[in-house]
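[recover] target loaded
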């Protein structure tokens, strides 16, 4: 069985150490202005598909919770009482 010295510093053949001159040249090189682009400006120019339908008003009929339903205390969905994980506990079978 080969012994491995786990305390020895790790070196990999792919690590290319840059010289001091290369690092200084990289620092002095002009950087592109792409980093300074404001994300809010990009988001304003981006248009989602189907965005022309945003002028429509949505209307949904809300039905109150029935007597044989419960609201799960974990996922907050309304389920029929047959989906309750245990009697007296407001947790559905999916969350249990």
């Amino acid at each position: 069985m080969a012994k491995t010295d786990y305390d020895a510093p790790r070196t990999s053949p792919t690590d290319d150490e840059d010289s001091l001159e290369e690092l200084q040249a990289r620092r002095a090189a002009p950087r592109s202005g792409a980093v300074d682009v404001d994300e809010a400006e990009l988001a304003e120019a981006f248009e989602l598909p189907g965005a022309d339908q945003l002028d429509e008003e949505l209307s949904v009929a809300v039905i109150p919770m029935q007597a044989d339903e419960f609201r799960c205390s974990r996922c907050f969905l309304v389920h029929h009482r047959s989906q309750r994980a245990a009697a007296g506990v407001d947790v559905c079978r999916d969350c249990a």
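[recover] notes: Residues 64-96 form one domain.
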